[in-house]
């Protein structure tokens, strides 16, 4: 895909229960929502710019992350709360039904939105949702998540990320955690942005457990109105989200749809990802 001129971006803040939601809107045309968790809107900027050539693209910082501050910073982030936030944003913008593309925890948010507000969703592309409760070893996975959180509190982020990446079967040499962090280097981390530190803390203490333990209503998703596409990175074979995505697709009775790259393919290969996304949407 040829490079696209930078789209005009409108930013705004929407007051929702307990939070002020930062959101960005680009382009014009059919509505596409790009959502992560804990990734904020900035991670989707290159993909959003490409899609804005012929779509209205909505991105947002999830509640408690980045520029979406909470009234109570200790409030847990659940897929249901985040789905309600997306519903409010779509209603505020008078947009939809929308294509909702979610990645990682954002894919869980997108599935929760399809269940709770199917009238607002045309298609869900759930790219690598970490739905560990769909796996046969779910009890071991729960214990591993609890161990990560305890390690974050006792030994700091570097040790916690090392456990996270090992559990996700991600190569530490080539991949980062979902918020862009990585295991602590020798000598400790250099001085870090306070917002990055706060977002990382929120991920481990208030988001990770509720996201990975969310159980989708497979029957509702299989028989409901929104089309559900389960996305999987071409380079994610053997990783945790390969297992969870494959398990979800199997229960829905569909085949996983391959996208370029791995868990963060939309960041590393935005043009190829945009081309594949257009193919998938055109085929629906």
Describe it.
The chain is built from 10 helices and 8 strands. The protein is of the alpha/beta class. The protein has a single domain, classed as Rossmann fold (3-Layer(aba) Sandwich), CATH 3.40.50. It has an 8-stranded mixed beta sheet, sandwiched between helices. About 4% of the residues have low confidence.
Structure summarized in a few sentences:
The chain is an alpha/beta fold.
What brief labels describe this structure?
single chain; 284 residues; alpha/beta; Rossmann fold; 8-stranded mixed sheet; globular
CATH architecture: 3-Layer(aba) Sandwich
Distance between the termini: 21 Å
Spell out the helices and strands N to C. Answer: EEEHEHEHEHHHHEHEHH
**What name is given to the CATH topology?**
Rossmann fold
Overall mean confidence score, pLDDT: 92
Task: Describe the secondary structure blueprint for this structure.
Elements: E1 9-16, E2 19-26, E3 31-35, H1 45-51, E4 56-60, H2 79-93, E5 98-103, H3 105-116, E6 121-127, H4 138-155, H5 157-167, H6 194-212, H7 218-223, E7 227-233, H8 240-252, E8 257-259, H9 265-268, H10 270-283
Parallel strand pairs: 3-4, 3-5, 5-6, 6-7, 7-8
Antiparallel strand pairs: 1-2, 2-4
Helix pairs in contact: 1-10, 2-3, 4-5, 4-6
């Amino acid at each position: 895909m040829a490079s696209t001129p930078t789209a005009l971006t409108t930013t705004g803040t929407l007051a929702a229960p307990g939070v002020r939601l930062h959101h960005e809107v680009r382009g014009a045309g059919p509505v596409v929502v790009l959502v992560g968790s804990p990734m904020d809107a900035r991670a989707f900027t290159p993909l959003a710019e490409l899609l804005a050539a012929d779509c209205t693209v909505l991105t947002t910082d999830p509640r408690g992350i980045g520029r979406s501050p909470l009234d109570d910073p200790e409030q847990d982030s659940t897929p249901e709360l985040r789905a309600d936030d997306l519903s409010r944003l779509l209603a505020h913008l008078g947009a939809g039904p929308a294509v909702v593309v979610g990645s990682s925890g954002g894919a869980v948010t997108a599935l929760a939105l399809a269940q709770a507000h199917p009238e607002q969703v045309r298609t869900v592309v759930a790219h690598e949702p970490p739905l560990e409760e769909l796996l046969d070893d779910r009890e071991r996975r729960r214990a591993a998540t609890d161990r990560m959180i305890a390690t974050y509190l006792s030994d700091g982020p570097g040790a916690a990320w090392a456990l996270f990446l090992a559990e996700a079967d991600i190569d530490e040499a080539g991949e980062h955690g979902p918020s862009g962090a990585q295991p602590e280097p020798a000598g400790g981390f250099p001085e870090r942005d306070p917002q990055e530190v706060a977002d990382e803390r929120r991920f481990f203490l208030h988001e990770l457990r509720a996201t990975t333990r969310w159980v989708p209503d497979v029957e509702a998703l299989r028989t409901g109105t929104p089309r559900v596409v389960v996305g999987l990175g071409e380079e994610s074979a053997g990783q945790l989200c390969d297992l969870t995505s494959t398990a979800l697709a199997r229960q829905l009775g569909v085949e996983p749809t391959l996208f370029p790259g791995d868990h963060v393919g939309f960041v590393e290969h935005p043009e190829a990802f945009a081309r594949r996304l257009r193919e998938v949407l055109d085929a629906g």
